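Researcher: Structure prediction, please.
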Amino acid sequence: MDDRADVIRNLILRNPAGSGEKEGLLRQVCSTAAQELSASGAGISVMTEGGVRGATASSDPVSERLEELQFMFGEGPCIDAFGSRRPVLISDLGDVVASAGGRWPFYAPAAHAGGLRAVFAFPLQIGAARLGVLDVFRDRVGPLTNGELADALTFADVTVTALLDRQERTGDSGIDDIYDDAAEYRAELFQAQGMVMVQLGITLGEAMMRIRAYAYAEDRRLGDVTRDIVARRLRFDRDER
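Model: Predicted structure follows.
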């Protein structure tokens, strides 16, 4: 690692939040990235190769909501960056909102209404392996400076290295645990889709759309809605279609 990478690594790991529970490290990355990159917030989604979220972390509640909206709508910078394996750099989200038929027709207006003005997404990857995405959020229009862009890329690299190092040290906490969560989340999501499909007599894809729409309308996390459906605390009735 070069000197700057060592500096960023030390900034992330110096806080006690970077140790202990498995998501503590990711939360500390988000908080440190937001501060060092002059951002209003940051979020991380750890994802499987199928694009399903396994665990998330954020620097603050607003960033958590901006991160969650992407999975409610099934679109956004995080999902694009993960799929393309390349950073997604949007210096003015208003331009995306204003473009007719542009990218993220649902996420962009919702995020913009929530105060987001610029977003920068960086894949967490090593070789062919993709672990997730680091999103950097700003409440003002404008690009990252060259130095900030370099630091953001370093944050992504350091995060991957820290997660792998953590797994090697502890043997039972790290990437494997996060991927276990991802598999469990995916199975639960598919079960919820199937239940709503039967309840409403619709296709599996339409069931997913209904679940996402409900989560957005009720301002709830998609994972919480999914768990309620599986636990039969929430049911979709045909007369609500």
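Model: The longest strand covers residues 129-138.
Researcher: Thanks, that helps.
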